[in-house]
Automatic annotation (TrEMBL), chain A:
CDD domains: TM_PBP2
One Pfam family recorded for the sequence: BPD_transp_1
Main location: membrane
InterPro entries: MetI-like, MetI-like_sf, Phosphate_PstA
Keyword annotations from UniProtKB, A to Z: Cell membrane, Membrane, Transmembrane, Transmembrane helix, Transport
Organism: Lapidilactobacillus mulanensis
Protein name according to UniProt: Phosphate transport system permease protein PstA
Xref: SUPFAM superfamilies: MetI-like
PROSITE patterns (UniProt xref): ABC_TM1 (PS50928)
TrEMBL record, chain B:
Name of the protein in its database record: Phosphate transport system permease protein
Subcellular location: Cell membrane
Domain ABC transmembrane type-1: 88-298
PANTHER family in UniProt: ABC TRANSPORTER PERMEASE PROTEIN YQGH-RELATED (PTHR30425:SF2), PHOSPHATE TRANSPORT SYSTEM PERMEASE PROTEIN PST (PTHR30425)
Transmembrane intervals: 21-46, 88-112, 124-149, 161-186, 207-228, 279-298
Database matches in Gene3D superfamilies: MetI-like
Sorted UniProt keywords: Cell membrane, Membrane, Phosphate transport, Transmembrane, Transmembrane helix, Transport
Function: Part of the binding-protein-dependent transport system for phosphate; probably responsible for the translocation of the substrate across the membrane.
Membrane topology according to the record: Multi-pass membrane protein
Organism, scientific name: Lapidilactobacillus mulanensis
Origin organism lineage: Bacteria, Bacillati, Bacillota, Bacilli, Lactobacillales
Family of this protein: Belongs to the binding-protein-dependent transport system permease family. CysTW subfamily.
Record gene name: pstC
PROSITE patterns: ABC_TM1
Pfam family, any one: BPD_transp_1
From TrEMBL, chain C:
Pfam families: ABC_tran
UniProt xrefs under InterPro entries: AAA+_ATPase, ABC_transporter-like_ATP-bd, ABC_transporter-like_CS, P-loop_NTPase, PstB-like
GO MF, one example: ATP binding
Matches recorded under NCBIfam families: 3a0107s01c2
Protein name in the entry: Phosphate ABC transporter ATP-binding protein PstB
Domain of life: Bacteria
CDD domains: ABC_PstB_phosphate_transporter
Organism: Lapidilactobacillus mulanensis
The ABC transporter domain, residue ranges: 23-264
Gene3D superfamilies, alphabetized: P-loop containing nucleotide triphosphate hydrolases
Keyword line: ATP-binding, Cell membrane, Membrane, Nucleotide-binding, Phosphate transport, Translocase, Transport
UniProtKB/TrEMBL annotation, chain D:
Protein name (record): Phosphate-binding protein
Keyword terms of this UniProt record: Cell membrane, Lipoprotein, Membrane, Palmitate, Phosphate transport, Signal, Transport
Domain PBP: 26-254
Annotated signal peptide: 1-24
Pfam entry (one): PBP_like_2
Family: Belongs to the PstS family.
Subunit description: The complex is composed of two ATP-binding proteins (PstB), two transmembrane proteins (PstC and PstA) and a solute-binding protein (PstS).
Subcellular location: Cell membrane
């Protein structure tokens, strides 16, 4: 066979592989949506879950998921940004740094159940946070930090050294240069990392079972004082998230419509991740534009 | 500015240098916190996991090579039955198989995204891959249970639960990670390599195969190894499809178990501090050490790659 | 490359009381780890003149230039000994604020490196960071520096466009504008025209001739003609030593040592 | 950017500090943790309790009987739920723990609906789970390999099943699942599968089997004709006080026992005609 023919064959194979991957995702998505969406209704999305009768909703769980996601991101984004900056800009290049980098990477492939138990013993019991949103958010942070830090460091490293020199030569400190020049330029990569992190957090169950807990006490949506026990904002209340809910009704749930509820919850979950993806991408592009002055011509 | 003013300004500590200290402190605090987290997890898992050997006096060799896992009962010699070999074998089997299946797909997709059609790649494949990461492992597990397991049962016989099903599920789960890291590796091959090759009359495929892939071998291996350590630590989804029988797997379609599946199942049912619980933590310790080994492997490959 | 005797050198001492000296280096050594790249260079630079540093690749001229505003600080393992005197102070001294110093000794690099920001932001960013908040002052700085850099006419309607959309030559002139917006005392240029086409190069050269009225300029260049066209003084570097330093006219017509003659006549390098 | 960063960091620490001050929190709550089988029951009761007593919360967590017992022993929660007597669990010192039996639950063997076998003797069941019988045709069923699905080691349901069926015989290594939901799903979809589960979880996707010609019904459990059953325990560390005591009384009240416990498929304690001790001694309860 000639080189040109090989080229054709290889290109075809590559196209097929790509189509296959898209097909796999399409299948997964369609499977989830088709089996779940018919059961999704406004009542389902906003309603209270039930512990043993049919017809429960996922309102509280959905709210909990979002609240936990926001809290975990508020804690982990600045931390990972700082740590990523340190590793990329300040850390001396020696074995200690590479050990730290290694350890962080190992942490990122730790089974989440171990993170969950760690969170349980440390946050829930030692710090006396109990089964609470706070414990959950901290456990998610532990879970999310390594990946995010690595992504931040990689994205910063991808920005060419001359950008930094430009800043230094103007009498700017390294910190200013990083924060105002390098980070904005690296933003698309960092945003991607954050999207992936958010997706992972949103779907995480094992790390939350022992930390944020599995019960969803009725919330009083008219009282937003974070100190009131039934307030949605109270970080000390126990909170079951959507992913935990799916896990729970499938494992020990005795509601008669468990299959439908879990299918519908999965559909909502995946749709939400999809939405998050789009939103983060949009916000990221806008932010990138604002910080770098790269604006669309009107 | 006159001479004296400039001299004075040079000798004064500027806002920028204060700012620099501020930055160093802030980012230093962040990294310290993360190191703190890392160290405490390591300490935490190690202290509990090692208790099996130091407090409960289990023989390490027996632990690694024993084939019976039944911590609540003792064997003929009166030692607790904590043989982790079936799980170790199970974990490694699914991990390696998933990596073997995923690698060609990941490389193919990455080559497509970087070399064949960057536009389609960025518009279609990249979001697709990011979305795949976002699907929670619970959902993967249930799809595995309702689609993969019956498929394997019908096609290959057996109950459908086993290493093969686990491999399929893990394959889809690590594909995005390996692909996106491979994309990074391919992108770091300088553009002029490609141009030089094409200018010499090589076809696109020859360029990809002989130049681009060769130049990024160490990056691709890193991606695969990283995917493997992901697969190694995955729990919920694998647990649902592998069958969780603590038997040495004889074939790919009989129920087997992995370190994570046994760990996840057993944790809630054992009492903190008891031998059954400590033995589970020893499994967790193994899980922690294994990615470390994978990591050292990555570094080693990276170094060898750098030498070429 | 031929080895020349580095003891055979002629360095003109400008510090004879007739001229105003902006910066001197005294027995400057620069080492990266165990490798010494500069072996004790002592030169003085006259104020409001252009001094060119010439020499083959690896002669150490860029390293030397980069140590003049301590850009090498950021490269791990760099060790600088000897003195760099600016306004009677050694800029490597412990009591010197490096950021403040760099405001006075600006730098333009070989590769144009505009920030991924708008043209306007590129110029005003550092000013703002250094505390200038008045909009009219910033606007004025943008217009003045862009005019000085010969870029104003081309970009005055697109000030809020991304700088990355400019051509290479325009980017480099933007970088010059950005550097002089700080009103530095001394401007260091590291082969600023090496990646530019002849037209852009000519514009940049014109810009430099224009700037010399207000700034002391030290420029590293590969291009003999360029050094001949724009500089008042030229220093010839060879293997980490400055072998000859004199008025450009003299260097190009009557070099005092063999190595310089070989280099400027194109026998090596 | 920097300001925003500082603001974020500040907010975070503020949140941590604020939430550390639990004293300021208004409302009252206790936590019950443990057995996942008991979880839906306590949760439902807790919800009802909060409706009747606004501002008083019962947090109910699963995690397994082992977690429940070790947490109540460490007194880090108010109530520990367990499918087992604390005495049965190794590593637990039961002397400070107070047992509250809140319900009874029966455990029944279940098989894939395709299997026609209707009755098994205890001995046959034991032989299936020990691996001595491997094909349904030995039991009057179709020529089909038996797929044994076990619960995870240490699970309360498995303990109950092994105690009253296996009677000391050891089970073979087989598939294990850590939740009833998974077991049900697998039994329903795997040909030749057999497992066991608590009564409340049985639905039409799986088939129950009579044991020694006794049908698995609540009535048979109440008179101990159906032997495979256990108490559901809620342990407190010492005598319950305050909200805990109030909730324990609430959950044992007739309303809750009838409307929630009974409704969910558990057997209310008050309906039991017999009692059974830890050692297995059965006595008739005289009204």
């Amino acid at each position: 066979m000639t080189a040109r023919k090989w080229d054709k064959v290889a290109t075809t194979v590559l196209y097929l592989i790509s189509i296959f991957i898209i097909f796999v995702l399409a299948f997964l998505l369609l499977y989830i949506l088709i089996s779940g969406l018919p059961h999704v209704s406004w009542h389902f999305i906003t309603g209270r879950s039930s512990s043993f009768e049919a017809g429960g909703g996922i309102g509280v769980q959905l709210f909990n998921s979002i609240y936990l996601l926001v809290l975990a991101m508020i804690i982990s984004v600045p931390l990972s940004l700082g740590a990523g900056i340190y590793l990329s800009e300040y850390a001396p290049k020696n074995w200690v740094t590479s050990l730290i980098r290694n350890a962080i990477e190992v942490l990122s492939s730790l089974p989440s159940v171990v993170v969950g138990l760690f969170g349980f013993l440390v946050f829930s019991i030692n710090f006396k946070f109990g089964f609470s949103i706070l414990s959950g958010a901290l456990a998610l942070t532990v879970f999310n930090l390594p990946l995010l830090t690595r992504k931040v460091e990689d994205s910063l490293q991808a920005i060419h050294y001359t950008q930094r020199e430009a800043g230094y030569a103007l009498g700017l400190s390294r910190w200013e240069t990083v924060i105002h020049v390098v980070v904005p330029a690296a933003l698309p990569g960092i945003i991607t990392g954050m999207i992936l992190g958010m997706g992972r957090i949103f779907g995480e169950a094992a790390a939350l079972i022992y930390t944020a807990g599995q019960s969803s006490p009725p919330l009083d949506f008219s009282n937003w004082n974070p100190m009131y026990i039934a307030s949605p904002l109270n970080p000390m209340r126990s909170a079951e998230t959507l992913a935990v809910h799916i896990w729970k009704i499938n494992s020990e749930g005795i509601i008669p419509d468990a299959t439908q509820v879990s299918a519908a919850s999965s559909a909502v979950l995946v749709l939400f991740v999809l939405l998050l993806n789009l939103a983060a991408r949009y916000v990221g592009n806008r932010l990138y534009g604002r910080l770098t002055g790269v604006k669309e011509r009107k | 500015m006159n001479n004296d003013e400039i001299r004075a300004s040079l000798l004064k500590r500027s806002r920028a240098s204060k700012n620099e200290i501020f930055g160093k402190v802030i980012s230093g605090i962040c990294i310290t916190i993360i190191i703190g987290v890392v160290v405490s997890i390591f300490y935490f898992v190690a202290s509990k996991g090692l208790a099996t050997f130091f407090t409960d006096k289990v023989n390490l060799w027996k632990f690694l090579t024993g084939t019976v896992w039944n911590p609540s009962t003792n064997d003929a010699q009166g030692d607790p039955q904590v043989g982790a070999l079936p799980m170790i074998v199970g974990s490694f089997s699914v991990t390696f198989l998933a990596a073997i299946v995923a690698t060609p797909f990941a490389i193919g997709a990455a080559v497509f995204m970087t070399e064949i059609s960057p536009k389609l790649g960025k518009r279609v494949l990249q979001p697709v891959i990011e979305l795949l990461v976002g699907i929670p492992s619970v959902v993967y597990g249930f799809i595995g249970l309702s689609v993969v397991v019956p498929f394997v049962r019908r096609t290959f016989g057996g109950s459908g639960f086993g290493i093969l099903s686990g491999t399929f599920v893990l394959f889809v789960m690590i594909l995005p990670t390996v692909t996106s890291m491979t994309v990074d590796a391919l992108n770091s091959v300088p553009r002029n390599y490609r141009e030089a090759s094409l200018a010499l009359g090589a076809t696109r495929w020859q360029t990809i195969y002989k130049v681009v892939l060769r130049a990024s071998v160490s990056g691709i291996i890193t991606a695969v190894v990283f995917g493997m350590s992901r697969a190694f630590g995955e729990a919920l989804a694998v647990q649902m499809v592998i069958g969780n029988a603590m038997l040495l797997p004889g074939n790919l379609i009989s129920p087997a178990s992995t370190l994570t599946s046994v760990l996840t199942m057993g944790m809630g049912n054992s009492v903190m501090g008891s031998l059954s619980n400590n033995a589970l933590w020893s499994l967790a310790l193994l899980l922690l050490i294994m990615p470390l080994v994978f990591n050292i492997l990555i570094r080693w490959i990276g170094k060898r790659g750098a030498m070429h | 490359m031929q080895n020349y005797d580095s003891s055979d050198r002629y360095l003109k001492n400008l510090d004879d009381g007739n001229r105003e000296i902006a910066l001197t280096t005294d027995d400057l050594h620069v080492a990266y780890g165990t490798h010494e790249a500069i072996h004790g260079v002592s030169l003085g630079f006259e104020r409001f003149k252009i001094t060119a540093l010439i020499g083959a690749s690896g002669s150490g001229k860029s390293t030397y230039l980069r140590s003049l505003n301590r850009m090498n600080d950021n490269i791990a393992g760099t060790k600088v000994t000897g003195k760099i005197m600016y306004r009677g102070l050694d800029i490597n001294g412990d009591n010197i604020d490096v950021y403040e110093m760099r405001k006075h000794i600006g730098m333009v690099f070989q590769q144009p490196n505009p920030f991924a920001k708008s043209i306007y932001e590129n110029i005003t960013f550092a000013l703002k960071r250094h505390g200038e908040k008045r909009k009219d002052v910033l606007d004025e700085a943008v217009e003045r520096t862009l005019k000085q850099a010969g870029l104003w006419k081309q970009v005055k309607d697109d000030l809020h466009q991304s700088a990355l959309a400019l051509s290479g030559g325009q980017q480099q002139r933007l970088c010059i504008a950005r550097a002089i917006a700080m009103k530095p005392d001394i401007l260091l240029l590291d082969e600023p025209a090496s990646v530019l086409d002849p037209v852009s190069t000519a514009t940049v050269e014109d810009t430099l001739m224009e700037l010399k009225k207000d700034y002391t300029i030290i420029i590293v260049t590969h291009n003999m003609q360029q050094a001949g066209r724009i500089s008042d003084y030229t220093a010839f570097f060879h293997l980490g030593d400055a072998l000859e330093y004199d008025e450009t006219r003299k260097i190009f017509t009557r070099p005092k040592i063999k190595a310089t003659e070989d280099y400027v006549s194109g026998h090596f390098g | 950017m920097k300001k925003r960063l500082i603001a974020l960091l500040g907010l975070t620490s503020l949140l941590v500090i604020l939430s550390g001050c639990q004293l300021k929190q208004t409302g009252e709550s206790i936590t019950a943790v443990g057995s996942s089988a008991l979880q839906p029951l306590v949760e439902a009761a807790g919800d009802r309790f909060t409706e009747d007593n606004p501002g008083q919360f019962i947090n109910v967590q699963g995690g397994g009987s082992g977690t429940g017992l070790s947490q109540i022993q460490a007194a880090s929660v108010e109530i520990g739920n367990s499918d087992l007597y604390a005495e049965q669990k190794s590593g637990i010192d039961p002397k400070d723990l107070v047992d509250h039996k809140v319900a009874v639950v029966g455990v029944t063997p279940v098989v894939n609906p395709e299997i026609s076998v209707k009755n098994l003797s205890t001995d046959q069941l034991a032989k299936i789970f020990s691996g001595d019988i491997t094909n349904w045709n030995k039991l009057g069923g179709p020529n089909q390999k038996i797929v044994v699905i076990n619960r995870a080691q240490g699970s309360g349901t498995r303990d109950t099943f092994e105690r009253w069926v296996m009677k000391g015989r050891s089970t073979m290594q087989a598939q294990e699942q850590d939740s009833t939901g998974m077991v049900r799903q697998i039994v329903a979809s795997t040909p030749g599968a057999i497992s066991y589960m608590a009564f409340p979880y049985v639905d039409k996707t799986v088939k129950t089997v009579n044991v020694d010609n006794v049908t698995p019904t609540d009535k048979n459990v109440q008179i101990n004709k159906w032997k495979i059953w256990s108490y559901e325990h809620m342990y407190t560390n010492g005598k319950p006080t305050g909200l805990t005591a109030k909730f324990m009384t609430y959950i044992l009240s007739d309303t809750i026992q009838d409307e929630i416990v009974g409704e969910m498929g558990y057997i209310p304690i008050k309906d039991m005609k017999v009692s059974r001790t830890l050692a297995g001694k059965v006595a008739t309860i005289n009204e």
